[in-house]
Specification:
The protein has one helix at 67-70, and strands at 2-8, 11-16, 22-26, 30-34, 58-63, 72-79, 89-98, 103-112, 127-129, 135-139, 158-162, 184-187, 192-197, 204-208, 215-220, 256-258, 276-281, 294-298, 303-310, 316-323, 331-336, 342-346, 351-356. The protein is mainly beta.
């Protein structure tokens, strides 16, 4: 484990630039370039104003598939209302990056979660481009607004799929519900903070927070309902009362779920969430034994989880293990670098960029 950079202020997302540099977001609203040897730039100008309260701030960042020619990046963030007391939302901005002047230009908000609500939590916010150049955006149900996750007229508790201009992508599901938002890809999510494409199938996988326990790893398929809050393996906070049913017709079962922080057998009482965060499939050659395994960070669970998929369709969990737990660090994001090593961001005011190698 190498500490590439330290002293990051609540880092949330990262993206690799050509040449080995990394873009890193800090929730307070700063976007920085970190060199391969850990040198941090001054904050890049032109970042949109964020609502830096609760779980909000500057969140994920991703490069345009044609970044080499158009220099575009996309950022998800909590978008403030006119005043601190006003409703806010998750939004996505597009901008052009100049790595020499450390500036963004033509910064434009292309997508907003609607309607806005008064909340400081559950923004979701992972960004992933699919193989057709469309952008997946994960959206939380905004904490306290759980019923909205089942409402197709609202952008809460959803995975969206949009164009680079923010419009509904071709091939999105068609819903018969009047007023259903055309950008919706899947629904019934609570707070999905990790997302990645499967390297072989190109399908989107997401993880999401349960309430108390019940954290999930899901294969996000077009038009499917992932249950929250009517179907869940979680409990209401501070109780042993289940949230909804563990199985319910018309909802999808998770590929994997956690009802204890360390993944051990549950013996009764109250459950304990791992609080999953960023995730990535391993496709490099430095860890051949991990080929196509999915890695996800854990915040409350302070670990890196490795999940092995298999079965007849390759979409069933056959093994999982908890790694790096002895470090006791909240892992916020996970990425495979272009060098084949695994990179992690740790959470908090003294966040770190770590590299796992051998």
């Amino acid at each position: 484990m190498t500490e590439v950079a330290t002293g990051l202020d609540s880092p949330w997302g990262m993206a690799f630039l050509p040449g080995g540099q990394m873009l890193v977001t800090e929730r307070s609203g700063s976007l920085r370039i970190v060199s391969a040897n850990g040198v941090k730039s001054t904050p890049i100008s032109g970042v949109p104003t964020v609502d830096y309260r609760g779980q909000g701030g500057l969140l994920d960042v991703v490069l345009d598939p044609a970044f080499a020619t158009n220099r575009r990046i996309y950022m998800s963030f909590s978008q403030p209302g006119p005043t601190a007391a006003d409703a806010n939302n998750t939004a996505v901005a597009r901008a052009e990056l100049n790595t020499t002047t450390l500036a963004l230009s033509n910064t434009t908000v292309i997508f907003e979660q609607l309607p806005k609500v008064v909340s400081q939590g559950h923004y979701g916010s992972r960004l992933v481009f699919d193989k057709n150049g469309y952008l997946f955006v994960t959206l939380g149900e905004r904490q306290g607004e759980r019923a909205f996750a089942q409402d197709l007229t609202r952008g809460h508790g959803k995975v969206m799929r949009i164009t680079t201009d923010g419009a509904a992508a071709l091939g999105n599901p068609s819903f018969t519900t009047a007023g259903a938002q055309s950008t919706i890809w899947s629904y019934g999510h609570r707070n999905p903070q990790g997302a990645a494409l499967h390297p072989s199938t190109g399908e989107l996988w997401v993880n999401e927070h349960g309430a108390q326990g019940g954290d999930e790893l899901n294969l996000s398929l077009a038009g499917k309902n992932y249950g929250w809050p009517v179907a869940s393996y979680s409990q209401e906070y501070g109780t042993t009362t289940p949230v909804g049913s563990t199985t319910l017709a018309g909802t999808e079962q998770p590929v994997s779920y956690w009802i204890t922080r360390d993944g051990s057998a549950f013996t009764g009482g109250m459950q304990s969430s791992i609080a999953p965060s960023g995730m990535a499939f391993y496709t490099g050659d430095k860890f051949p034994e991990y080929k196509d395994n999915v890695f996800l960070g854990a915040l409350a669970g302070t670990a890196l989880w490795r999940v092995v998929l298999g079965g007849p369709d390759g979409k069933t969990e056959v093994f999982r293990e908890r790694l790096l737990a002895s470090r006791g660090e909240r892992i916020r994001d996970v990425r495979m670098g272009p060098d084949g090593w695994i990179y992690l961001l740790t959470d908090g005011a003294a966040g770190k960029l770590l590299r796992v190698s051998k």
